[in-house]
């Protein structure tokens, strides 16, 4: 639990409030938030939510809490709607909204419909904690969905646990997230498995044996997955030739990559998020390194190919689903998502959709909407048919599901393999 505490402490230090954005099911997408450091005065007073992309709401419409009516369920979502992981928040939010639209159209749960409030945490841990506090204390949400990045789920999860409100993270894979307590669950697999998946693919499918790693030491996800990969790769008979680190936001990786070039590894494992992964790929090829590049789910963004260009072609990453899987659940979801948003859904959209639908399913079974009863219903979910696979919440409140390996080809991820849970 030490790692959990360390990340939570970081999150609680920053108490200043950003202007955060409520979104609702029918409103346009929430957009740019003002960050505390960029000109707005930090405040502890009621934030000034902005509905839609440009039009601020008037002050009287400021309080989502006052709009809460007894005949609806308010669900909270905290997400990186802006910043260098902006596609994580946006895709997840779109997936959640599609699920709510369908659930509401079918009559809701026990006669009540759902309303979503989304706050932008700008990809910052302290804003994540602030957003969850606000969702719980002011907006009185029945449950919280989020975050994508594990460090931010750890920050927000501490708040949800302390307040006794259930939180489901759609996509945070670091094992410590659900160790926070019984209020916290997830609908995705965890990184000890994901590290194994990447290692096994390199050893068994690519038949390669030496690896360098380059990870983000500021993210619990990246540091954890780096360790999990190293362990699995070594156990499978591979050799780690060097391990290098960077800090999220870095743009120059030449020192680390020069060290890696000296070792001439078969593969470079880069368990970071897509912005840095794209930049790293560019610099790898500029240095003339020919190693195969491999990453984890943190690469899953349409921005990866935009940033990485030709340099990311032929690279592989593990993920929670592929839009090319022929399972009917996948093809049905892809079709509906394309109709609504005009884009192919990434893994985050699928996981957001699954998390919201699983929550609604649990609510049909829950004795009441109290945090305790609802968490109990969520935690006893069995064989829930999700887009990303069949979801059973286990005793550690994690989901055990297969992973897919995707290969970047022609500027988009193509399905390459499925790896089953151990
Ligand atoms: N698993 C990543 C984390 O825990 C988040 C992520 C999931 C990113 C899926 C992209 C796709 O930080």
What descriptors fit this protein?
alpha/beta, 40% helix, 14 helices, 14 strands, disordered N terminus, Rossmann fold, 2 domains, five-stranded parallel sheet, 422 residues
Report on this model:
The model is unreliable at 1-66 (pLDDT under 50). The chain has helices at residues 2-13, 64-67, 86-105, 125-137, 150-163, 176-179, 191-205, 220-235, 254-263, 274-286, 303-308, 328-341, 347-365, 371-379; strands spanning 72-79, 113-120, 143-145, 167-169, 184-186, 210-216, 239-246, 267-270, 292-295, 316-319, 384-386, 389-391, 403-409, 412-419. Helix 1 (2-13) packs across helix 4, helix 3 crosses helix 13 and helix 4 (125-137) runs parallel beside helix 5. The protein starts with a helix and ends with a strand. It folds into 2 domains: 44-189 and 331-401, Rossmann fold; 191-319, Rossmann fold. It is α/β, with parallel strands linked by helices and 422 residues long. Strand 13 and strand 14 form a beta hairpin. The chain contains 14 helices and 14 strands. The strands form 3 sheets. The protein has a 7-stranded mixed beta sheet, sandwiched between helices. Phenylalanine binds at residues 88, 148-150, 171-174, 221, 297-298, 300, 347-348. Phenylalanine is lined by residues 88, 148-150, 171-174, 221, 297-298, 300, 347-348.
């Amino acid at each position: 639990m030490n790692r959990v505490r360390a990340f939570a402490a970081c999150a609680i230090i920053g108490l200043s409030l950003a202007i955060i954005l409520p979104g609702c099911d029918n409103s346009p997408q929430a957009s740019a938030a003002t960050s505390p450091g960029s000109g707005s005065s930090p405040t502890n007073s009621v934030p000034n939510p902005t509905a839609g992309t440009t039009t601020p709401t008037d002050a009287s419409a400021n309080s989502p809490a006052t709009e809460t009516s007894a005949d609806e369920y308010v669900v909270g979502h905290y997400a990186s709607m802006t910043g260098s992981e902006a596609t994580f928040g946006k895709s997840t939010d779109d997936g959640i909204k599609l699920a709510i639209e369908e659930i509401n159209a079918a009559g809701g749960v026990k006669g009540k419909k759902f309303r979503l409030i989304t706050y932008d945490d700008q990809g910052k841990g302290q804003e994540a904690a602030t957003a969850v506090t606000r969702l719980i204390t002011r907006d009185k949400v029945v449950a919280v969905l989020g975050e994508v990045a594990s460090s931010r789920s750890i920050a927000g999860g501490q708040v949800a646990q302390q307040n006794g409100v259930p939180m489901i993270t759609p996509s945070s894979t670091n094992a410590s997230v659900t160790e926070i307590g019984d209020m916290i669950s997830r609908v995705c697999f965890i990184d000890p498995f994901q590290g194994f998946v990447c290692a096994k693919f390199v050893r068994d499918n690519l038949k390669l044996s030496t690896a360098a790693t380059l990870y983000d030491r500021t993210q619990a996800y990246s540091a954890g997955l780096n360790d999990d990969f190293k362990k699995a790769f070594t156990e499978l008979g591979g050799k780690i030739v060097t391990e290098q680190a960077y800090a999220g936001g870095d743009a120059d990786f030449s020192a680390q990559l020069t060290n890696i070039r000296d070792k001439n590894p078969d593969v470079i494992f880069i368990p970071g998020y897509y912005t840095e992964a794209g930049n790293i790929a560019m610099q790898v090829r500029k240095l003339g390194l020919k190693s195969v590049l491999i990453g984890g789910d943190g690469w899953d963004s349409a921005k990866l190919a935009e940033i990485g260009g030709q340099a990311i072609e032929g690279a592989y990453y593990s993920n929670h689903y592929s839009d090319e899987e022929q399972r009917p659940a996948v093809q049905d979801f892809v079709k509906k998502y394309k109709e609504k948003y005009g884009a192919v859904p990434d893994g985050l959209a699928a996981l957001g959709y699954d998390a919201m639908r699983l929550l609604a399913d649990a609510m049909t079974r829950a004795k009441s909407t109290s945090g305790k009863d609802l968490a109990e219903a969520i935690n006893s979910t069995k064989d829930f048919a999700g887009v990303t696979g069949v979801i059973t919440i286990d005793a550690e409140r994690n989901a055990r599901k297969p992973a897919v390996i995707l290969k970047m080809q022609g500027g988009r991820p193509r399905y390459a393999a499925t790896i089953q849970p151990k």
